[in-house]
Design a protein that fits this description.
CATH topology of the largest domain: Rossmann fold
Helix content: 40-55%
Radius of gyration: 22 Å
Oligomer: single chain
Order of helices and strands: HEHEHEHEHEHHHHEEHEEEHHHEE
CATH architecture of the largest domain: 3-Layer(aba) Sandwich
Number of strands: 12
Distance between the termini: 59 Å
Length: 369
């Protein structure tokens, strides 16, 4: 259960989390709304660990930001149903009162639903029974209550995505604890948890974290989904503290999360985002190697012999698990075209804007060797 003092005032990291989640909801709704309007007639946002909705200094947290967006977005008035849950009854009571004070809250067709339940294995059947496209958000005080089975249930309905803010330090610590064996097994599934324990046993801190995150991404792949991650680092920048993960079965969801979280990144190297928040990072420090040059080399190798591709197709086929955003792909493709490494139709000399690659342009890569 969350420490009440956590809600005294938001940190910079908390504000970044709020912006990413609330912007994702807005973008996700735009993608899902047309089909949902025709079929289910509604879509949902479900917050499994909602908190009181506001910090003690008056700053709204994610539940109020989501509802304020819905109130001020007419297409959502008759379409978005919200559900807010927390195991702390005082938080639910406080959020209920604050929702009632939102100007224009009566514009929403579906009155917000508030619940006081503990999230765990009993939650999974309820989630499976939901046949409405839903964005789920989980921000537990650690990681307990969330599991790969819960995420699987959440993604079973078309258009549904799952966002999860978790404490990496607690997962890392509990992986080696016999006392916490049960929650870790529930989180990863027993087989994957045991395999992960064996994998990380001889590893140092950095490799250990990479192995844990890979296990989570592999679990998402087993669900035929992809996982994007935004990392939060300690004040010294020496270690990770939390990660915000988005799991989606649709390429537009992954691209949306990447583009939104990129804007919250601490550093950009050659316009390539770090996809993390690092209070100790020096934004003026440059890397020894250009990440854009690395992208150019990778594209020439990965797409060798492929023809008739658009820049967006290349982006969606390549960006998962990498830091690059769509802008970076356009930059890399322009440089490859300038160097004669690829062919673009229409060619640069005939384009109205020669320094851009139109969305309809077709790109061909020569064979290697």
């Amino acid at each position: 259960m969350a420490d009440v003092s956590f809600f005294d005032t938001p940190t910079i990291a908390s504000r970044k989390k709020q912006r990413i989640v609330s912007k994702y909801l807005a973008g996700w709704a735009n993608i899902v709304l047309p089909q949902a309007r025709t079929h289910e007639g509604r879509m949902m946002y479900v917050d499994l660990f909602c908190g009181p909705g506001q910090y003690e200094d008056g700053t709204p947290s994610i539940p109020l930001l989501i509802l304020e967006h819905a109130v001020n977005t007419p297409p959502l008035h008759d379409m978005l149903q919200t559900v807010f849950n927390d195991e702390n009854p005082a938080f639910v009571e406080a959020l209920t009162a604050r929702i009632a004070r939102i100007p224009g809250i009566d514009r929403l067709k579906y009155k917000p639903v508030l619940r006081n339940r503990t999230i765990g294995q009993d939650t999974i059947p309820r989630v499976k029974s939901n046949y409405v496209p839903t964005l789920y958000f989980a921000d537990p005080w650690g990681y307990e209550g969330v599991s790969i089975d819960l995420i699987d249930a959440a993604l079973s309905q078309w258009g549904s995505d799952f966002m999860f803010f978790f404490n990496y330090n607690r997962i890392n610590m509990h992986l080696g604890s016999d006392v916490m064996c049960g929650p870790i097994n529930e989180f990863f599934s027993p087989g994957r948890a045991e395999q992960l324990r064996q994998t990380i046993a001889p590893l140092g801190p950095v490799q250990r974290e990479q192995a844990v995150l890979k296990a989570m991404k592999d679990a998402a792949k087993d669900l035929r989904a992809q996982a994007g991650i935004f990392t939060y680092r300690s004040e010294t920048g020496s270690r990770s503290t939390h990660h915000l993960m988005c799991v989606s079965k649709h390429r537009q969801g992954m691209a949306l999360f990447k583009e939104i979280s990129a804007k919250e990144s601490t550093r950009f190297d050659d316009d390539v985002p770090s996809l993390d928040y690092n209070p100790a990072a020096n934004p003026d420090q440059t890397l020894l190697f250009s990440p854009l040059e690395q992208l150019e080399q990778d594209l020439v190798t990965t797409f060798a012999g492929k023809t008739g591709l658009t820049a967006e197709q290349i982006y969606h086929d390549h960006h998962n698990g990498k830091p690059y955003i769509l802008k970076n792909y356009r930059q890399a493709l322009l440089r490859l075209e300038e160097n004669g490494a690829i062919l673009v139709d229409p060619p640069r000399a005939t384009r109205r804007q020669p320094d851009t690659i139109p969305g309809s342009a077709r790109i061909s890569f020569p064979r290697v060797g």
